[in-house]
Model the fold of this input.
Amino acid sequence: MQRIIVTYTLYYWPGIQGRGEYVRLALEEAGADYVDIALLSAKSGGGVAAIERYLDGKDVARPPFAPPFLKAGRQLIGQTANILLFLGGRLHLAPRDAAGALWTHQLQLTIADFVVEIHDTHHPIGSGLYYAQQKAAAKRRSKDFLAHRVPKFLGYFERVLQRNTARGPWLVGATLTYADLSMAQVIAGMRYAFPLATRKALRGRPRLRALHDAAFARPRIVRYFESGRRVAFNNDGIFRHYPELDA
Ligand SMILES: N[C@@H](CCC(=O)N[C@@H](CS)C(=O)NCC(=O)O)C(=O)O
Done:
């Protein structure tokens, strides 16, 4: 049988994990053949210019709104959850049946909602403003986020894990899906951004802790982390550590 090698091209801003990391984790777990185009030099067609070509190009029939987006053959796919829906089927990181695939996508969309709220803790007024320009609002927003939204989101995902009657630490059935990788990434990011509040929030949520540990112990994920290719969490990304915002 002939093996078909598909090359994926990921378009995401250099220097941060951002939403590109959810896609990278799926590609890495599957051992997929992909290029992180913005990390290549401008000379070899990479850099930010490669992204802007699709954001601004007048000849792009189906332009994405923002990175991440993924090129697979002639298809250009935007929106993190949409990219993962597409990859989930191809890379065997989601159930094959329609209901299972949709449920995994639903979980991913809920993770996306959570990610927006995490971002808004340090940028509650506007993404175009500096953190320093919205510090007071960020403090108020974070206080409410940690008190009400974190327990609601984490409580929900812990409940999903509890109601999954299949063996193993995963959100859907007995096999790892892209949603598990994304969930582990959110937990890692929350631990970076809000170490004190997250430790407290995860205290009574053993299933989420176990999911994180199991997902990030996958051999290919460990290899990716050890490769030096994973950008470290930093204060330009979605998860930012401002001690004054932690509870
Ligand atoms: N809902 C989109 C959001 C994409 C998004 O906000 N991308 C950020 C980087 S993580 C960006 O470049 N946004 C530019 C903008 O919103 O103007 C997704 O989940 O992919």
